[in-house]
């Protein structure tokens, strides 16, 4: 339904207004099924979003992990913080930016440890703050861990030197056999009745192995290569999700999902509609739907086949680095901090929607912001129209050629002679000089009448038009996200019972306003008033 509406809008309205209508349609769709739980699951309006205050570097959370007793760990560019969502946090400094986190309980310690993969190494962090640098294998590549996965008394890591397994995070065993030792990009574990399945993507290929643990000793069956007909060997998987959304396994690529619904069924290629220029990063299931993290926002869908749409709240427009789930919540590590989605009444979201759609008279509407940005960036549609008109008229214009010739001549001559006059010999000498100047000017007009029917440079104009349209769409999409996210923040400020607690939200609103102001060349801030609780 949404695709059909989008096609009609594209045909009837200018491109600069398309992003506005799509944003309004997305907001309307988010609340269209608020009372239809019996008709097939909950909708985004049944989810309540909450921001957890975590003091991280630049407010960016790059990785997260969930442990027992409500424990949460988040990573950033300086290290990790461990604590409860509603309690105090303990910061542990690490070398390098954190890329992945996982709690691991080997059964030998009272409390589980935190395994942290950074850009400069792999670390075991105890909950009391002790840090131990560990490496799954020899060589520097083995210490570069991209992803970790855990099962009871088993941990698996995907590194730049291949996949490694361990029962205690101290003694490691390589997943060998026919498996190449190249860079592994994703790994996942799944418990079975008598074994654990290990799925790993190495050098764009998918491998599966069965693992058994007996008295702390690993027994590995020979790995089997699993052929993905749509993408194997051509692109690098970024995530592997098992038993998700009714599917046996889902392989996440940057712009596509390759899903196998049952172990004996063929693979299916799914292409979710992502934000312009977005790349998928993580896939998870919680609260009765699937969640797809991208670097342009969080998407949700009731089914893996879609339709996928932006999640309500700031997570829908922020870069999402990682996802973690509990039975009653979804945790998302975003570029704006740690956010949590929980099941709840749609009333709170509806209360926020009214001030979002009711624009203050002192605030410019989204269309005015779009026009100001396009005017500042010189991306207005009449630019291409002017180029096309110029090319169409160019065939009637003559090719003018001007040629000038200047000539200058100088000459000198001498004559000598002898004569006998009056009894004496006389020598005669005669000389002469002359010069001349000539100037010629030619003016030529010529026409190529074939250019009147189709000028060769029309192809260049068409190419330029496509690039400008793509750039304009990206700009409008970015501004639309900033604009409506700011409206969400302002609505949340207005709904607070205690004005003194809105300091962080006001800073966020100012940050979003600064982003819009940069796109409009200072126009936006000159037309708004600072948020007041």
- Count of discrete alpha- or pi-helical segments spanning 4 or more residues: 8
Q: Count the strands? A: 31
The radius of gyration is 35 Å
Shape: elongated
- The overall pLDDT, averaged over residues, is 80
Work out the strand percent.
Answer: 35-45%
Question: Tell me about the biggest sheet?
Answer: 5 strands, antiparallel
Specify the helix fraction band. Answer: 10-25%
SS-based class: alpha+beta
N-to-C terminal Cα separation, in Å? Answer: 39 Å
- Poorly predicted regions are 1-43
Describe the structure.
- This protein has 533 residues and is α+β, with helices and mostly antiparallel strands.
- The protein has a domain at 398-447.
- It has eight helices and 31 strands.
- The strands form eight sheets. Strands 14, 15, 16, 17 and 18 form a five-stranded antiparallel β-sheet that branches. It has a four-stranded antiparallel β-sheet with strand order 1-29-28-27, with no helix packed on it.
- The longest helix has 37 residues, at 458-494.
- It is elongated and about 145 Å long.
- The two termini are 39 Å apart.
Relevant terms:
single chain, alpha+beta, five-stranded antiparallel β-sheet, four-stranded antiparallel β-sheet, 23% helix, disordered N terminus
């Amino acid at each position: 339904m949404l695709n059909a509406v989008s096609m009609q809008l594209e045909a009837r309205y200018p491109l600069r207004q398309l992003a506005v209508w799509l944003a309004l349609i997305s907001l309307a769709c988010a609340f269209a099924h608020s009372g239809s739980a019996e008709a097939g699951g909950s909708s985004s309006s049944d989810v309540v979003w909450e921001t957890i205050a975590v003091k991280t570097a630049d407010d960016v959370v790059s990785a997260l992990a969930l442990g027992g007793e409500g424990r949460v760990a988040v990573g950033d560019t300086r290290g990790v913080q461990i604590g409860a969502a509603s309690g105090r946090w303990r910061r542990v400094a690490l070398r390098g930016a954190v890329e992945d986190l996982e709690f691991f309980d080997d059964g030998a310690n009272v409390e589980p440890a935190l395994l942290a993969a950074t850009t400069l190494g792999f670390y075991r962090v105890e909950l009391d703050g002790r840090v131990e640098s560990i490496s799954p294998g020899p060589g520097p590549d083995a210490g570069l861990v991209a992803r970790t996965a855990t099962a009871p008394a088993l941990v698996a890591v995907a590194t730049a030197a291949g996949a490694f397994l361990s029962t205690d995070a101290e003694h490691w065993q390589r997943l060998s056999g026919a498996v190449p030792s190249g860079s592994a990009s994703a790994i996942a574990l799944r418990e079975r009745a008598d074994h654990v399945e290990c799925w790993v993507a190495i050098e764009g290929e998918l491998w599966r192995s069965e693992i058994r643990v007996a008295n702390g000793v690993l027994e590995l069956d020979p790995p089997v290569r699993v052929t993905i007909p749509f993408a194997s060997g051509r692109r690098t998987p970024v995530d592997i999700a098992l038993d998700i959304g009714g599917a046996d396994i889902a392989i996440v690529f940057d712009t596509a999902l390759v899903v196998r619904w049952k172990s004996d069924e063929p693979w299916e290629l799914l292409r979710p509609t992502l934000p312009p220029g977005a790349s998928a990063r993580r896939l998870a299931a919680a609260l009765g739907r699937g969640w797809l993290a991208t670097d342009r926002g969080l998407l949700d869908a009731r089914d893996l086949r879609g339709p996928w749409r932006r999640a309500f709240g700031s997570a829908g427009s922020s870069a999402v680095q990682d996802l973690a789930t509990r039975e009653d919540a979804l945790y998302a590590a975003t570029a704006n901090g740690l956010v949590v989605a929980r099941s709840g009444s749609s009333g709170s979201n509806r209360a926020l929607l009214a001030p979002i759609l009711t624009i203050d008279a002192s605030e410019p509407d989204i269309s005015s912001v779009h026009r100001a940005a396009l005017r500042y960036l010189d991306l207005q549609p009449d630019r291409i129209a002017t180029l096309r008109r110029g090319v169409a008229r160019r065939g009637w214009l003559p090719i003018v050629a001007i040629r000038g010739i200047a000539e200058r001549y100088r000459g000198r001559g001498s004559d000598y002679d002898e004569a006998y006059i009056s009894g004496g010999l006389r020598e005669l000498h005669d000389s002469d000089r002359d010069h001349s100047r000539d100037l010629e000017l030619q003016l030529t007009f010529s026409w190529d009448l074939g250019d009147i029917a189709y000028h060769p440079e029309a192809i260049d104009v068409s190419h330029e038009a496509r690039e400008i349209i793509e750039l304009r769409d990206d700009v409008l999409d970015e501004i639309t996200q900033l604009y409506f996210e700011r409206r969400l923040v302002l609505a949340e400020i207005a709904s607070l019972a205690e004005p003194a607690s809105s300091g962080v939200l006001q800073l966020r609103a100012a940050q979003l306003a600064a982003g819009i102001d940069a796109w409009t060349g200072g126009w936006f801030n000159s037309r708004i008033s600072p948020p007041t609780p």
